[in-house]
Amino acid sequence: MPQSKTWLALFVLAGVLASVSAAPAQERFPPLTAYNLNKQKVILPGGMAGKIDLLLISFAPEQHRDAESWLAAAQALQHMDFQFRYYELPVEGRENFVFRWWDTSSLRSDENDPELWPWIVPLFVDRGKLMRDLEIPNAKQVVALLVDRQGRILWRASGPMTPRLRAGLMAAAQE
To answer: 71 vs 18, 56, 87, 93, CA distance in Å?
Structure first.
């Protein structure tokens, strides 16, 4: 009888240790389908052009300048590694066709370089759900996510680019 209690104790202890040492589930970017400013379908994250991609998520037009503060570092990484790409993802709520057309046309006229249109992908989604899925506490700042093709979030930051955030992005992108 004592031997069966020992085995039971070891079994219970192994279960407790396994649950304590188990790694938490990694954050993932949810699968989405959208259209870039070139009117081409983009399937996020698996259909993105890079092996890893920097996603610059903004929630209001006045955050555009903060999103653009990331572009110099993103372009530098893209020139160093041809498997790296960046996307600007302005987020709007689910809207009707006319609003989506108007908003996308406005974005196209604001960005007068058609070479950048493939990398700007407006998202017309349930903002609250997207924020919950990505664990974004509020829509007050731009969010930068480094994501692989499987949607794993490898690195994150919020707000405009700073020297510290640039160093973190560069290190994470080169891992």
So the answer is: 43, 9, 10, 25
E strands present in the chain: 32-35, 41-44, 52-58, 84-92, 123-124, 143-148, 153-158
All domains in the chain, ordered by first residue: 27-173 (3.40.30.10)
CA dihedral of residues 52, 56, 57, 58 (deg, nearest 10): -170
Q: The whole model's pTM is what?
A: 0.81
Q: Which residues make Cβ contacts (< 8 Å) with residue 68, sequence separation at least 6?
A: none
Show the tokens assigned to 108: 């196209």
CA torsion sign for 86, 154, 49, 63 is negative
pLDDT in tens, 81-129: 888 999 999 998 877 778 778 787 778 778 878 888 889 899 989 999 9
Cα 165 from Cα 155, distance rounded (Å): 10
Q: Is residue 85 within 8 Å of residue 75, measured between CB atoms?
A: no
| Two structure tokens written together for 11 | 């079994």
Q: Rounded to 10 degrees, what is the CA torsion of 160, 80, 30, 39?
A: 90
Written as six digits, the tokens of 170 are 């560069």
* CA 14/CA 116 separation, integer angstroms: 54
